[in-house]
Amino acid sequence: MNILKFITAGSVDDGKSTLIGRLLYDTNSILDDQLEAIKKANRKNNDGTVDLAILTDGLKAEREQGITIDVAYKYFQTEKRKFIIADAPGHIQYTRNMVTGASNSDLIIILVDARKGVIEQTKRHSFLAKLLSLKKVLVCINKMDMVDYDQAVFESIKQDYLKLAERLEIKELDFIPVSALKGDNIVHKSDRLTWYDGASLLDYLENVDLEERKNQPWRFPVQWIVRPQTDDLHDYRGYAGRVLGEGLKLGEEVIVLPSGTRSAIKAIEINQEQLVQAENGQSVIIHLADDIDISRGDIIVSAAQPALTERNFEANICWFDNKVLDTTQVYLLQNHTALTKIKIADILHKYDVNTQEQLFGEEIKLNDIGKVAVKAAQDVVFDLHKDFPENSQAIIIDPRTNLTVGALMIESIA
Amino acid sequence: MDYLDHLEAEAIYILREVAGQFENPALLFSGGKDSITLVHLAKKAFRPGKFPFPLVHIDTGHNFPETIEFRDWLVEQTGERLIVGLVQDSIDEGKAVEQKGKNASRNALQTVTLLDTIEKYGFDACIGGARRDEEKARAKERIFSVRDEFGQWDPKRQRPELWNILNGKIHKGENVRVFPISNWTELDVWNYIKREKIALPSIYFSHEREVVWRNGQWMAAAPCLQIDEEDVVEHKSVRFRTVGDMTCTAAVDSVATELDDIITEIKASTVSERGARMDDKVSEAAMEERKKQGYF
């Protein structure tokens, strides 16, 4: 059994919370005392059924306003998979929350209202899915009950979306017609949608193959150095971290970046047991053949396929702070375990998140997305977003407030 | 990667980030299964080295004796350092006022002792075993959750957490609560305990005990509980699904003596884990309000 992380994009009006509520409810993931609490809160739909949307409203302020403000993580599991849902608000003023939720997901469910078709919001969510390189986009065309389960409506929206996907270069893509409110094609296949021969939503989520992007050479950001300094382990010096990418194995030639020092993998340990190789995502300790100076923030990489080491680069940025991006200010860039002082020297352009049009000569404010040129005080070790998304990502911290003010995806070398 | 391997690797990564980013962290140890799991994960993260943090127990004085016994055994077995903060000390110093009446509990008073202990030792990060599936306010909790100088959580001012990059930068006086098993469910914890053969206090397994019916649940008939003549005390076969102190943790009817029995029981259960916690039932936002004050 493995884990699938997904985000649902849409707003209250699209039935997003109802969809999540339905998935949880119909997989028996909601227990009696939780249902009791919902009943006590006494929020009903127009037809008198319990409003499943309330299941995803965590904070008092959210319940009071009947909206989701923050990202909430929900969990359920079936015999086949464990699921982690990032439930984020879909409105434009919460773009930062959607970006956060999407960054922690492999798949995005984009909800389209069958009566409205592809709208501005659909385009915005699809753009974010592309920007963050989600592995799969699943378009759920919802409220099929409101259009008499008409195949022509579904097909027409599908064609519209395919055009959008082509423009955004979204390739991994699927469609399901559903009604979250009535439960059609959510857990079970609906007999009201006989013309649809694909899987129900749950069936799809249980079986979708999100093959890890292969051929990405391993990188090993050093988190911590294990040095017991006891008599019997006097010379023990292990580098602890989590493996990114494939192919880290015993004997492999390595380069330590940014210094450029070369060595080889002498041992790989997990829970004090020796491994011959380590796989993507494993937290291990490695030992090198040579006694070299390595500290937290260094990245050990495959000598055959090293990462880039640069001070000037261009990146897509998403801004999270109430204060506008200041091109004269010093910020901190954190990528994996490394912290570097940077200046965002130039705003190349901003994106209209609804149309993806490039806008010039504008400030970058809260929830804005743009492309910027970054100048770092020291070498930054990374890969380009198109080659290896997981090693192109970084957050920006304002050293005056310590807040996380932005997210970066490095697109090119300047 | 198998889901338990994934959850384990993520938790180890988070623990090592704590070690790498903070000067003076601590692991808050309650004696419950979640914090016991954290100790196990810390061994995987840092052995053959020592933990880069002490274990800290906030002791209400109303703990199950089995929990304290287990805590002391675990400390001896791991050779790690233990710091105990006593709620009784906070009461004696006049910083906390004991509740009165039948439903009196020291649960809320723990926050006072916790914040005092953090200040006394100058901890800048406190690792805890809270999980997002436990409770709806916790579903929105960050992995690195910043608390102000007064220990308060402000749900509206949480930092966005992207990918696996954790921002541990804080100002002097602030501290961070860290939740390495945020993404685990109750069932994941039990399956992991089983896989890793992690030892637990005996009260998690079915045993015979004197219990008293209180507010619709069975509570351990302990000296710290006010028991009157009208109270019905019974001898029953029970276990504890969650272990807090004796005044706020209810027992469940159970004959589960093995981990497999417990896992079967949880899978079949129609009540959530925190359904046995009196402290959550005070109001719809009970957890959210307590967290704002500095509780876990």
UniProtKB/TrEMBL annotation, chain A:
Residue span(s) of domain Tr-type G: 1-213
Protein's GO biological process: sulfur compound metabolic process
Enzyme Commission no: 2.7.7.4
Domain of life: Bacteria
GO terms assigned for molecular function: ATP binding; GTP binding; GTPase activity; sulfate adenylyltransferase (ATP) activity
Entry-linked Pfam families: GTP-eEF1A_C, GTP_EFTU
Database matches in CDD domains: CysN_ATPS, CysN_NodQ_II, CysN_NoDQ_III
Keywords for this protein: ATP-binding, GTP-binding, Nucleotide-binding, Nucleotidyltransferase, Transferase
Protein name: sulfate adenylyltransferase
Origin organism lineage: Bacteria, Pseudomonadati, Bacteroidota, Sphingobacteriia, Sphingobacteriales
From TrEMBL, chain B:
A GO molecular-function annotation: sulfate adenylyltransferase (ATP) activity
GO BP terms, alphabetized: sulfate assimilation
Entry superkingdom: Bacteria
Gene3D superfamilies linked to this entry: HUPs
Classification via InterPro entries: PAPS_reduct_dom, Rossmann-like_a/b/a_fold, SO4_adenylTrfase_ssu, Sulfate_adenylyltrnsfr_sub2
Keyword annotations: ATP-binding, Nucleotide-binding, Nucleotidyltransferase, Transferase
Catalytic activity, EC: 2.7.7.4
SUPFAM superfamilies assigned to the protein according to its UniProt record, in alphabetical order: Adenine nucleotide alpha hydrolases-like (SSF52402)
Domain Phosphoadenosine phosphosulphate reductase: 25-250
Protein family (similarity comment): Belongs to the PAPS reductase family. CysD subfamily.
NCBIfam families in the cross-refs: CysD, PRK05253.1, PRK12563.1
Protein name (database record): Sulfate adenylyltransferase subunit 2
Annotated organism of origin: Sphingobacterium wenxiniae
Lineage of the organism: Bacteria, Pseudomonadati, Bacteroidota, Sphingobacteriia, Sphingobacteriales
